[in-house]
Amino acid sequence: MYNVVVVLNADGRSISKSETFIHSHIDSLRNEFNVTTLVGNPGQRKILEEGKDFQSLRFIPRAIRKLLRLLHRTTIRQQDNAALGKFFKKRNIHCCFAEYGMSGVGVMEVCRRLNTPLLVHFHGYDAYRNDLLKKYRRDYYEMFQVAEGIIAVSKDMKGKLEREVGFAEKIIHSSCGFNPSIVNNSETLSKQPNTVTFVGRLTPKKDPVGLIRAFAAVVSKIPEAQLTIIGDGELRSHCEKTILELDLQENVTLLGWKGHDEVLGILGQSTAFVMNSVTAKNGDKEGTPVAIMEAMALKNIVIATQHGGIVDIIEDGRSGLLYPEFDYELLSHKMIAALSGACDPAIPDNARQYAISNLSASLKNQFLNTLVWQSIEKSTSSL
């Protein structure tokens, strides 16, 4: 069995529970390969499966590494690459799969040096944020040269990377997917009337404040309408103030983060799901949100902006309702239409069928596994 290393730069040296797509990728790879997962930033990586440090973080070993950097005038990244090289050789790594562009940058040198195939999966901010593109543009160019393939989760992201970096022939469009097992009991779930759900981080690119303001117009037409916001983030206090300002305490609920099963339970009972994604001032954009796929699979009427990969999976008027970014009046109108039955009643069924047929994690992950196989076979055949 071939050996694959998955690399993820992360401050907390762990994979966030909200990054269900990364957990899904790793689980799928384990079905066909021996997988080792390195989580953490250079110099602080952790071997996830073994629960131990990649390099000791005890005081004396860290002090020695710092002294060696001073003596040899090397950086933490260079030192990390040297350690990665030894690790790759010892573990006989056949392919490196990097989650997020910055993770790929961190391993590109060792992959180049050892001729190890490198696949890099972009997800969102790593392809869009202006400050990151400015900081990593040269590194991205070198990484794209080294990489066997670059995966973009939306057509919009694919185009963005082609314009910013080039190498169009290496960039592959493939979104993440949802766990299709969530639909098993969806036929028996009863939908609660006049309910709208939002799931996501409370950040500028999700624009939850704009959603709350648009919902005020919904309440003026449908006083019993309820908006449930699941998630947390930097804009929570702003959301709370807006709810008070508009006197929506009886209509808008901020639940904070909830477990995945509880989120699915709420989606199973809600009538509509809203994703008010917008392009943030720093350029940040969505990839293709898995939460939308789950809402579709659970027969929500999805109302979302014409943004990022959302337009790749929703056909306006058939499998959901779309509107331009920052058009809050139209957002209000779409929510009222969804709750009052003024849109096509076939939308929930159409959305569910499309999600099951095209967006399941099993389909998406098998495609990624095939890319890994092809990269390894190409590498080994050239030896």
TrEMBL record:
This is Glycosyltransferase involved in cell wall bisynthesis. Keywords: Glycosyltransferase, Transferase. It comes from Marinobacter subterrani. Residues 19-178 form the Glycosyltransferase subfamily 4-like N-terminal domain. One of its GO terms (molecular function) is glycosyltransferase activity. PANTHER family: COLANIC ACID BIOSYNTHESIS GLYCOSYLTRANSFERASE WCAL-RELATED (PTHR12526:SF640), GLYCOSYLTRANSFERASE (PTHR12526). InterPro entries: Glyco_trans_1, Glyco_trans_4-like_N. GO terms for biological process: carbohydrate derivative metabolic process.
